[in-house]
Design a protein that fits this description.
The complex is a heterodimer. Chain A is mostly helical. Helix content of chain A is 74%, strand content 0%. The two termini of chain A are 23 Å apart. Classes of the chains: A mainly alpha, B mainly alpha.
Chain lengths: 152, 70
């Protein structure tokens, strides 16, 4: 608790959070399909990719990664018992299939028109993000998600 | 056709929600989406795949989505 409060006492951190919130509010005043919106959304995207490119932490090559999936340890130091390993590995397969199914459904909808008959994720979200405050919240959550990914 | 696509989205959304809840309640036995992303990001290719997916998500939601007259 003290550590959390201590972090918030830092003026630099407060300034950074305020700047991000102000930027998010400003960005979400732009209309979709316009250049200001494209540029303002691209800026955090490019920034995150640049920061990711500078990340010096070691990452395994694809072959090593596939091998580590076979010896899955679920983030623990020691490999898991066989039963737990099977369940964990099955879970990764379930999530992979779900992500593929969502991507395929999105692609299928995008290849057809009109959008009113073939809704995509963005057209479904339109009814919610019509309100500026919700759009702002969604933008902030997207940025937080990006920051979380950068730390992984 | 609209009903079919909407049902598809609801089924996929509920399936993802169920998998996430099972993961959260399983005490680490079944992976959450976060666990899978962390595992995926251990590799260089997986890391870039996830990060570009994040950029695409933002672009799709905030730039390419539109409400006529918005």
């Amino acid at each position: 608790m003290e550590a959390v409060l201590g972090r918030w006492r830092s003026p630099a951190r407060v300034a950074a959070v305020t700047a991000v919130l102000a930027y998010s509010w400003w960005v979400t005043t732009f209309r979709p399909f316009t250049w200001p919106m494209r540029i303002a959304t691209a800026i955090p995207g490019v920034l995150l990719l640049l920061l990711a490119a500078r990340d010096q932490r070691r990452r395994s090559a694809l072959r090593t990664w596939v091998a580590s999936w076979r010896l899955l340890n679920g983030g623990h130091d020691q490999p898991l018992p066989l039963r737990r390993r099977i369940i964990w590995r099955g879970g990764t397969v379930v999530w992979t299939l779900l992500i593929l199914a969502i991507s395929a459904w999105e692609l299928l909808a995008r290849l057809h028109t009109p959008r009113s008959l073939y809704p995509t994720l963005s057209s479904l979200s339109d009814s919610v993000t019509r309100v500026h405050a919700v759009r702002f919240l969604a933008f902030v959550l997207w940025l937080l998600f990006g920051r979380d990914l950068l730390r992984r | 056709m609209k009903a079919l696509f909407l049902i598809g989205w609801i089924v996929l959304g509920l399936a993802a929600l169920t998998a996430e809840v099972v993961g959260l309640l399983s005490n680490g036995r079944f992976p959450t989406l976060g666990d899978v992303l962390s595992f995926l990001m251990r590799s260089r290719v997986g890391r870039w795949f996830v990060l570009i997916g994040w950029v695409w998500l933002g672009w799709h939601l905030f730039v390419r989505s539109g409400v006529p007259g918005f």
